[in-house]
Design brief:
CATH architecture of the largest domain in chain C: Orthogonal Bundle
Largest sheet of chain A: 6 strands, mixed
Shape of chain C: globular
Strand order of the largest sheet of chain A: 6-7-8-3-9-10
Number of strands of chain C: 2
Strand content of chain C: under 5%
CATH architecture of chain A: 3-Layer(aba) Sandwich
Largest sheet of chain C: 2 strands, antiparallel
Number of helices of chain C: 12
Number of domains of chain C: 2
Strand order of the largest sheet of chain C: 1-2
Oligomer: heterotrimer
Largest interface: B-C, 89 and 85 residues
Chains: A alpha/beta, B mainly alpha, C mainly alpha
Number of domains of chain A: 1
CATH superfamily of the largest domain in chain C: MetI-like
CATH topology of the largest domain in chain C: MetI-like fold
Helix content of chain C: over 70%
Strand content of chain A: 25-35%
Structural class of chain C: mainly alpha
């Protein structure tokens, strides 16, 4: 049931990942792969542990007390849990976008530079250049070019999310993790973000957790379905998006699709 | 019935505090009339000659408070950073509770500890500056620092906790280290709350009486020359509160001008502490 | 470099916390070590002799208890009234705000100020001289803001729907105040009072001009010129004398007893405080 994709470069993969909160197992037997230049959608009912799973890929899970992760996660073939690896360097390589946009209480320009400026040395000219190029990349430049010095909190929520994306891109990540990035946004901002994702996937591999089945179907190349089986989150189905959606086989997934369309 | 009763009792309570304020203002009237602004700027206080200049007392209060804040501020903030940013919730509470208990140690007990432990230590440590005794402004300042430390830690920790976890996570997800997140995200966003913590601690330090009383030496008219000289720190001094707590208060009653001068010190103290507390509270409220 | 700074930061902050904890436990330890020897049954049942060098602290304990009881009785009704005022009777938001700010500010007022006020009003103007009643009332004033704020905090934590439900049943505001607000915030009054009393028990500045002397009295028999002995004043006076050997142990013993009294009151107030803090964290 787990197909391999040997013909492409594997960027991120997990092997038998298991997550426990205190003594309770919430995710188990998670094995998936993300190839370069693709969007992997992770879908499933709420409470199945999708967001937790995503946080294992950049070890942000370690900030949640009581969470234990077992198994293997490899980025470009090497383990992200290797003892000599600097977790902060890892997190710069694996960018993340949250459900609610989290802008920092500084101006727009500073927001874009927030991580980049501290991770590598940038001259004033390089900074200007970076701000412009990243804001262009997220299609925000034209909207904010005259007010780079204004507080980022004044932007609309959709603009804020794009700003957060620019901020993440500025630290040059190889993989982008997205935790329901459009669930707090209106339809227009949602389609703006979706277009960006499609555009960006040639440069970054993307893992997209989403509740929005239409979104998963339309923009992800492959999907992994995480559902509760015996009370534990597991991947019940995985494959090319079209195939998975057109011929769902796992009963949990069929239930979920039924509920989702019934709503 | 309930309504009338609670109106009456509240009026009584508020009236009592209002009366307190009026008593201080009116009773200190004569000294303002007789001394004018010299009461605040005057450098000498000789009650037998009816000379009342409170500057050295104000200086004493500010000096011990400054010493206390300089010592307890960084230490308390550092400890709060560790409590709030490094420790898991349970350990944080387990350490914070005893710290809050310690904030309740009576000031007379602190004074006793100051006499027993601190006085001689200051005398020995600063022996090369040749202090007359261990009873100095510095001793009082250090003692106050220890006294306000638990409050400082607790309030700073509250301020740091009020920064949302999402901000921390977003910064960490960008690849910033914990230290960078603290400096660039947590501390700037908590700065208001931290300022409040400092102000509330200042209010407490300014108003502390008995502990300071026991280790400060209570020497009148100790002022620095020039004004920035640190020399008086190693001499005995007097603060607004130690003056009020001393025997002079009993002597003064009956002599209208002298009594007014004493009550005037109360007014100065009220203004300073209420100002610090009020500002601190406003900052905290708006922050939370 | 960045990693190094990260580690340095952790060490510095951890060091600060360690220093705080060391200082604090060191203080308690040094009191306990010095005072332990004085504690005995007779220390609690005898009266002072030989200017503190001999005997016990019976009447100091009694006097402190008298002051605290008086303060509690005077403070509790006022605190509840003020809290009800803010919660129920005051209509305008700005009045409520002013009341709260006033309470917070009053909470930070130095205790010596209350002492002077009591000295002038009760001791001199009322002509009571040094009296337990003057001391109790002064302490009541100094702890009133703390107690009121704790009661208020507790009342504010009562879910609005209880109040709405009670009002919906047709209860008048007074009935709501009794049946919901007061009933649900008893714990707040108790823990607030314990906190206030813990602070008041150790206060010296407010009572030294108004209520307490060093030796020579037992239980007060009237109001005028009826001072009491107290624990903090006992320490305060002995601390100013040179430490004669016999006095020293007794003095530290008294400090230990006072500390025990204060801590046990604060600890008794803890559970309900913790419960509130946990709630508000969520």
């Amino acid at each position: 049931m787990f197909e391999n994709i040997p013909c492409k470069n594997i960027v991120l993969e997990t092997l038998n990942l298991e997550v426990q909160v205190r003594e309770r197992t919430i995710l188990q037997n998670i094995s998936l792969q993300v190839a370069s230049g693709e969007i992997l959608g992770i879908i499933g009912p709420s409470g199945a542990g999708k967001s937790t799973l995503l946080r294992c890929f950049n070890r942000l899970s370690e900030l949640t007390p009581g969470l234990r992760v077992r198994g293997e996660v490899r980025l470009m073939g090497s383990s992200i849990y290797a003892p000599e690896l600097d977790v902060n360097v890892l997190r710069a390589r694996v960018g993340m976008l949250f459900q609610e946009p989290v802008v920092f209480p500084v101006d727009i320009r500073e927001n874009v530079l927030f991580g980049a400026r501290r991770l590598r040395k940038l001259s004033k000219g390089e900074q200007d250049e970076l701000v412009e190029s990243k804001l262009r990349e997220v299609a925000l430049w034209e909207e904010v070019r005259d007010r780079l010095k204004q507080p980022a909190a004044k932007l609309s929520v959709g603009q804020q999310q794009r700003l957060c994306l620019a901020r993440t891109l500025a630290v040059r990540p190889e993989v982008l993790l997205m935790d329901e990035p459009t669930s707090a946004l209106d339809p227009r901002s949602t389609s703006a973000i979706e277009e960006l994702l499609l555009e960006m996937k040639s440069r970054h591999s993307i893992v997209l957790v989403t509740h929005n089945l239409r979104q998963a179907r339309q923009i992800s190349d492959r999907v992994a379905v995480v559902c509760l089986r015996n009370g534990v989150g597991q991947i019940v189905e995985q494959g090319e998006s079209a195939a998975v959606f057109n011929a769902p086989s796992a009963p949990e997934f069929r239930d979920y699709l039924g509920q989702a369309s019934g709503m | 019935m309930t309504r009338v009763l609670s109106w009456l009792l509240s009026a009584l309570a508020i009236g009592a505090f209002g009366f307190l304020l009026c008593v201080f203002l009116f009773q200190s009237g004569p000294v303002w009339q007789s001394e004018g602004t010299r009461y605040i700027t005057g450098v000498s206080w000789f009650y037998r000659q009816d000379v009342f200049g409170a500057l050295s007392l104000i200086y004493g209060s500010l000096a011990v408070t400054a010493v206390a804040l300089l010592l307890a501020g960084p230490l308390g903030l550092g400890a709060a950073v560790f409590l709030s940013e490094y420790l898991p919730q349970k350990a944080r509470l387990a350490l914070k509770i005893p710290l809050e208990l310690l904030a309740g140690i009576p000031s007379v007990v602190f004074g006793l500890l100051g006499i027993a432990l601190l006085r001689d230590w200051v005398y020995r440590t600063f022996a090369k500056f040749d202090p007359l005794s261990g009873d100095t402004l510095l001793t009082a300042g250090i003692l106050l620092a220890v006294m306000i430390l638990p409050t400082m830690v607790s309030l700073c920790d509250d301020a740091l906790r009020s920064v949302s976890g999402a901000q921390r996570q977003a910064a960490r997800a960008l690849g910033l280290t914990r230290a960078e997140t603290i400096w660039n995200i947590v501390l700037p966003q908590a700065s208001r709350g931290i300022a409040s913590a400092f102000l509330l601690s200042v209010g407490r330090a300014l108003g502390e009486t008995v502990a300071v009383f026991l280790v400060i030496g209570r020497q009148d008219n100790n002022l620095p020359h020039p004004w920035y000289s640190p020399a008086p720190l190693l001499e005995a001094g007097q603060t607004l509160t130690t003056k009020l707590g001393g025997a002079e208060t009993n002597i003064a009653f009956g002599d209208p001008l002298h009594w007014a001068a004493i009550m005037g010190l109360g007014v100065l103290l009220l203004v300073l502490t209420a100002g610090a507390t009020c500002l601190g509270t406003l900052g905290r409220r708006r922050h939370a | 470099m960045r990693r190094g700074l990260d580690i340095v930061m952790g060490c510095v902050a951890g060091g600060c916390l360690l220093a705080c904890l060391t200082i604090s436990t060191g203080l308690v330890w040094s009191i306990a070590r010095r005072g332990w020897g004085a504690l005995s049954f007779s220390f609690f049942t005898e009266q002072i002799a030989l200017v503190g060098a001999s005997g016990g602290i019976l009447w100091n304990l009694v006097g402190t208890t008298v002051l605290l009881s008086t303060a509690f009785l005077a403070c509790a009704p006022l605190a509840v009234s003020l809290a009800l005022m803010e919660r129920v009777w005051l209509r305008s938001e700005s009045m409520k705000k002013a009341l709260r700010l006033g309470l917070y500010t009053a909470n930070g007022l130095p205790s010596i100020v209350f002492g002077l006020f009591g000295f002038l009003v009760f001791v001199q103007w009322c002509g009571w001289g040094k009296s337990w009643l003057a001391g109790g009332l002064v302490l009541a004033m100094s702890m009133l803001p703390t107690v009121t704020l704790v009661v208020l905090e507790r009342m504010a934590a009562i879910p609005q729907r209880y109040i709405a439900a009670a009002t919906g049943l047709g209860l008048s505001q007074s009935q709501v105040a009794w049946a919901v607000l007061l009933k649900q915030s008893w714990g707040g009054l108790i823990s607030g009072s314990l906190l206030g009393l813990a602070r008041a028990a150790g206060e010296t500045a407010p009572i030294m001009f108004t209520a307490t002397i060093f030796a020579g009295v037992t239980f007060p028999k009237g109001v005028v010129e009826n001072p009491v002995l107290t624990l903090p004043y006992h320490i305060f006076i002995l601390a100013q004398d040179s430490f004669a050997a016999g006095v020293e142990t007794k003095m530290w013993g008294t400090a230990l007893v006072l500390l025990g009294l204060v801590f046990s009151m604060s600890v008794a107030a803890l559970p309900s405080r913790l419960y509130l803090h946990e709630e508000s964290d969520v």
